[in-house]
Write a structure and sequence with these properties.
The complex is a heterodimer of chains A (about 110) and B (about 180).
Chain A: E1 30-33, E2 37-40, E3 46-48, H1 49-63, E4 68-70, H2 71-78, H3 84-94, E5 95-97, E6 104-107
Antiparallel strand pairs in A: 1-2, 2-3, 4-6, 5-6
Chain B: H1 6-14, H2 22-45, E1 54-63, E2 66-75, E3 80-86, E4 90-94, E5 99-102, E6 107-110, H3 112-124, E7 135-141, E8 146-148, E9 156-158, H4 162-179
Parallel strand pairs in B: 3-7, 4-8, 7-9
Antiparallel strand pairs in B: 1-2, 2-3, 4-5, 5-6
Classes of the chains: A alpha+beta (about 110), B alpha/beta (about 180).
Chain lengths: ~110, ~180
């Protein structure tokens, strides 16, 4: 069918500021409280860590489809102080291993 | 359930992460306004039964080298409805050249383009078989403060009439189904 939304922005730069930002006020003050929820330090918006992380990588995948990530890249993108358990949950929910290679993933929710 | 356009998702993601150019800021703000209008339209749509309808959100179409947005396309077995949403406030009139102008006599909306938009859809939305579904285009004025002065146009649908219009679409999609064979898609 002819109806199609325009393709995403032709962004070529990789110098975007990484890290979770608040969905409401766009501030980078978002911090995890425990394993499952987090809160924006500026406006107080509370959200699930899993959900906001999934949302982050979904949108990043719109910009850079098919990118691969090492475990360190994922941590660097999120910039959240979360436990190993929470990080593993985020990775298992949103990523698949690249050809059975350890610790190299691609986004596949 | 409506999904945000990918382009807006990308803009939201990049906001505060990258410096935006002036044109990008303008486009981002325009898309946010459009998103709000579509969300409001969806609220009205949620009040009717949409099981007999196919709903397509936010189509961008190139008409004479310029992008036109059809915010909502509703397809029933009997008709195509195109809705273009606007948030115009205040008094407007249609000048002799079929252009919507505000009271400062500035052109706001070229209604002649509606004909081109309509023709473009008519060429594309061709049904198989004998029954060709009519195509109805409406500019929905999603602002209760919108007023028309002088000549009125059937192209416009005011927000206060929108629930009744959608109810009529719902009703026609259901009642006619009993008596007629639906058009094949």
């Amino acid at each position: 069918m002819m109806l199609k939304a325009r393709v995403p922005l032709p962004i070529v730069t990789r110098n975007i500021r990484r890290g979770i930002k608040c969905r409401r006020c766009h501030a980078f003050d978002w911090q995890a409280i425990g394993g499952s929820i987090g809160k924006c330090g500026r406006c107080g918006q509370v959200e699930s860590v899993q959900r906001i992380a999934a949302d982050y990588f979904t949108r990043l995948d719109l910009l850079y489809p098919g990118d691969i990530y090492k475990r360190r890249d994922i941590m660097d993108h999120l910039k959240l102080a979360v436990s190993e358990y929470t990080l593993q949950k985020i990775i298992h929910a949103n990523f698949r291993r690249l050809e059975h290679r350890k610790r190299i993933y691609f986004f596949s929710p | 359930m409506r999904d945000k356009p990918d382009r807006l998702k990308v803009y939201e993601f990049l906001y505060n992460r990258l410096p935006f150019s002036e044109s990008e800021v303008i486009e981002y703000e325009a898309m946010q306004r459009m998103e709000k209008l579509e969300a409001r339209f969806e609220q009205y749509l949620m009040k009717i039964k949409t099981s007999n309808m196919f709903i397509h959100w936010h189509a961008e179409i190139l008409v004479d080298k310029r992008m036109e947005i059809v915010n909502v396309l509703i397809v029933t077995d009997y008709c195509y409805y195109l809705f273009v949403l606007h948030d115009l406030e205040g008094e407007y009139y249609i000048n002799p050249f079929n252009i919507l102008c505000n009271m400062s006599h500035e052109a706001v909306l070229d209604l002649n383009r509606s004909r081109q938009l309509f023709d473009m859809f008519r060429e594309q939305l061709i049904d198989e078989g004998k029954y060709q579904r009519p195509i109805i285009l409406k500019y929905v004025m999603m602002n209760k403060a919108f007023r028309m002065k002088g000549k009125r146009s059937d192209l416009f649908l005011e927000e206060q009439n929108l629930p009744y219009y959608l109810k009529a679409i719902e009703h026609s999609a259901v009642i006619r189904k009993k008596n007629h064979h639906p058009a094949s898609t």
